[in-house]
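Hi C.,

You asked whether I'd gotten around to modeling the 352-residue construct. I have! Everything is below, sequence then structure, no commentary in between.
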Amino acid sequence: MDDLKISKKKPSYPVNDKLHNYLSEYNRNSKISVLYDDLLRFQGSITVYDKNDKDTLWIRVYFSDSDRTEIDLSLKKVYTQLHSDGNDTTLSFLNIDAIDYCTFGNSKPFRIKIRNILNDNYTYFYVKKADASRIYGLELEHMLSPYNLNFMVHKNTLIEEHIAGIPGDEFIENMLDDCTEPEKSQIAKEFVKFNERCMIRLLGDMRSYNYVIVPTHDFDHVVFKIRAIDFDQQSYEGKFNVYRPQFFKENLKLVALVSEKFKKESINQYKIEERSIVAKRMISCHDRITELLDCMINDSISNLKHIELLKSKIYDYTLDLEFKKSKNMGEVLKKALQFVKRNYEDVNTKGF
């Protein structure tokens, strides 16, 4: 697993004018009254522990009285913009219960817990420093995965909705062994599809704490889905296997489950299914994806060493010479998506 060590200090890439224009066109740009840097003015903090008294690597931050009043009001407004029409009439029913800051990882996000005081329902959202890599990752997830994502960008600040689910590492450690055999088989199938989807769209670093397991009750059984929750490593690393969750040691139990449950023919069937679904999504979102890829091609979100390594490794995997012509990560991703779409269309043509 040593060759899968990824860059600890991935740089944060600024959002350029072309990407801002794209975000405005698709209603992702929204003027907000609180920026990421405003939340860095906290005066003190305490460690946040989980129910087992384990350090969560989050700290709960506190502000001076004068700052807290202004920040609370601004965060309530952000919530109404993110989840509603930005109307101020509901602000009096909202309360900011906690503002937590994560000291682990590249993005160092703030997690906001907001509660409706009329019924005690609460949810979270995140305030992060806007990074072009992450924004590309969010947009690609929105278009190419089964899940829609809600986020806003203003200047150097990114607001993300919370993605609910059981953290993958917690599920694998505490819940997987108690699943029934049919449930384990269904989870294994989902992992094959998740692995394929991440590889196709070059979403890296899907270790178990960067995705969640989402159980849904369906008649007499539970259906499990796997959702990515961290998009920091979109099209950055040069090692191809970084974009394939099966190669991270944190996912070894799921890899073993796939080997236990499926023969190679079944694994290939699920891979083909996922490629076909991604290709169909590309066709239905053609104009939007084309515009996003144009932004990526005209942007810098990695370094030359990573680009050269990745296009070489993908060529080895596909034997498609088009990858060797890529000049940047945007072109590598565009050719990867075209490769999948082309194969899908060829298969369907032969079927007529």
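If it helps when you're writing up: The mean pLDDT is 93.

Thanks,
B.
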